[in-house]
Amino acid sequence: MAEMHRTVEKRIKSAMPLWITAALVIICGLIFPLYRIWGILVSAAVCLIGYLIAKGIFKDKVVQLEIAPEYKTGVPELDKSLSEADAHIVALRKLNERIPDENVTAAIDRMVKAGDGILAELSKNPTKARSMRRFLTYYLPTSVKLMEGYAMQQEAGYQGENLKEIKERIETNAETIARSFETSLDSLYAGEAIDISSDIAVLDSMVNGKSIKNQ
């Protein structure tokens, strides 16, 4: 069983306060007589004040770390399939940061949310995996391939006639792809066999009709 992706905060302490304090220790050793008590006390006070000031200036950095789920359904083949699918969803999430079109990014957000839900449900109920085989092995990776091609075209800036048509088709069908992800998720909870054949036909035409390999 596995949890969906979650993020945790990690605090990274700055090393600058320690380096500054170390430098102050050396400076104080050159200025004050450390063999006398008052020299030791003054040096300690200077170093402490310097450390506190440095801590205020060089604050700890807080970063968000994403923790990937670990799949343990007891079925090795399924665990491998879920892990591969999870990598595709991570790829979609990263691609979303590269794509400027609001409609496409909104569709990808829906794909990621539904995809996470599908993997979470399959990890809890491995017997449902058979109905999701086409989704896991074809639909999901093909969607990533299309969005990768779209992102690369956007970044390249070149808009030949063929590339322009592919770009427009992806923008037009992003909603369809997102809806099929959600339909797949809904079918798991409804206990129904999924029927996204028309959506798969859309993907097939996008991949085979006007291939993105010429990007």
Short description:
The protein is mainly alpha-helical and 215 residues long. The protein has seven helices and two strands.
Fold and architecture overview:
It is elongated and about 85 Å long. Mean pLDDT is 79; it is low at 209-215. It has 2 domains: 10-62; 70-214, no CATH class. The protein has 215 residues and is mostly helical. It has helices at 16-31, 37-57, 76-96, 102-124, 133-156, 161-190, 197-209; strands spanning 6-12, 61-67. Helix 1 (16-31) runs antiparallel to helix 2 (37-57) and helix 5 packs antiparallel against helix 6. Helix content is 69%, strand content 7%. The protein has a two-stranded antiparallel ribbon with strand order 1-2. The chain has 7 helices and 2 strands. The longest helix has 30 residues, at 161-190.
Query: How is the largest sheet built, in terms of strand order?
Result: 1-2
How many distinct domains? Answer: 2
Q: Structural class per helix/strand content?
A: mainly alpha
Give helix % range: 55-70%
Order of helices and strands: EHHEHHHHH
pLDDT average, as an integer?
Answer: 79
Low-confidence stretches: 209-215
Q: Could you give the distance between the termini?
A: 39 Å
**Largest β sheet strand count, sense and barrel closure:** 2 strands, antiparallel
Tally of strands: 2
Q: Compute the CA-based radius of gyration.
A: 27 Å
**What characteristic shape results from the CA principal axes?**
elongated
β-sheet strand percentage:
5-15%
